[in-house]
Amino acid sequence: MSNINKNVSINEGIREKEIRLLDGKDSKIISTREALILAEESELDLVMVSPTAKPPVCRIMDYNKFLYEQAKKLKEAKKNQKVIEIKEVRLSATIEDHDIEIKAKNANKFISNGDKVKVSIRFRGRQNNYRSIGNKVFERFLTKVSEDAVVEKSPQLEGRNMFMVLGPKK
């Protein structure tokens, strides 16, 4: 809660001479002193809502309740967020069909959970000379992966590794 609205001025922290005070539907320009007196009479806080406006906009409210409700909204928004993870499936240039089927089944499971899948091939030794084999392995892998998957990043070569990223269809 402490990182929410650290730069908001309240009560005596407001240094402006005149402010625009929001009262429900009405807004009126009054001196800061009068607004502070009104806030004290109603046992609430004078909170600067928009410091960049001319004159600055303030509202009379319970500041602690305001902070609590903002923290609650942030927490609720965080809860509703879907975190997408990137799972990795490693293949080799000399992989057999049955092994590709098993890896594709795992990739399908990840994609059905809503995660992205990074498929990578590491070339070793003489395999570096035959990188076209990696493209053929990726093509075989893509035929085994379900229709729910979409290629987000086409196969790329990075050093000894070739990789592509698959994601779920929207």
From TrEMBL:
Pfam families attached to this UniProt entry: IF3_C (PF00707), IF3_N (PF05198)
One GO location term (cellular component): membrane
InterPro entries noted in UniProt: T_IF-3_C_sf, T_IF-3_N_sf, Translation_initiation_fac3_CS, Translation_initiation_fac_3, Translation_initiation_fac_3_C, Translation_initiation_fac_3_N
Keyword match Cytoplasm: yes
UniProt GO MF annotations: ribosome binding; translation initiation factor activity
Protein keywords: Cytoplasm, Initiation factor, Protein biosynthesis
Keyword Transcription regulation attributed: no
Domain annotation Translation initiation factor 3 N-terminal: ranges: 10-77
UniProt-listed NCBIfam families: infC
Name the UniProt record assigns to this protein: Translation initiation factor IF-3
Organism of origin: Clostridium acidisoli DSM 12555
Gene responsible for this protein: infC
